Prior knowledge:
seven-stranded mixed β-sheet, two-stranded antiparallel sheet, 6 helices, 13 strands, 18% strand
Amino acid sequence: xxxxxxxxxxxxxxxxxxxxxxxxxxxxxxxxxxxxxxxxxxxxxxxxxxxxxxxxxxxxxxxxxxxxxxxxxxxxxxxxxxxxxxxxxxxxxxxxxxxxxxxxxxxxxxxxxxxxxxxxxxxxxxxxxxxxxxxxxxxxxxxxxxxxxxxxxxxxxxxxxxxxxxxxxxxxxxxxxxxxxxxxxxxxxxxxxxxxxxxxxxxxxxxxxxxxxxxxxxxxxxxxxxxxxxxxxxxxxxxxxxxxxxxxxxxxxxxxxxxx
Length: 260
């Protein structure tokens, strides 16, 4: 069954609100830090598996809120990105990283070709195929929004950007969001910061949004701003209104669902 790691019955990908009727698809590649027992935590202590190197803290809660408010499906990764980063192609050096930020990943050192193939088959392929299947359920290309979070301190340097709008060669939705940004937030918002396409972070957009000419954006939210449910709710509300306004500029009607 697509999305299932048969070793521990851990899902490599989940779909929520599959039958959503809104013209939007939410993606959260780094939603989970789950690590099936066969991988032995990749030789890392538990505190590192709880940190940003293993997943994007807070991102899933934001993605779920956007999915609910916009009534669009949500495709989310179910395993730690240290096993396989579903926002990377299999050939990328950091798809199965030997080092993340300043931390060595012992369990990813000297991987055999069989082990690489196993992770591609059980993590990358189910995620890619499921995303393609959900996309195929739309009558026309949906607005694609990928949701990520980033650490406020990276390699010892403090980041002052709070929300990043990341795009690849298609910047239509990013430009629309920037044109009305001050109507929705006074946060420090930047384009292609703290990451950009030169860092290899736009794989999902390149592989799935650009080929069908879908409006798209990758959201990067500093994770200290979404540490608890109240902060996550506030951020999701901000983003929902902002994205809807930007979509209106692009002649996309994004009816919002009132929370119950």
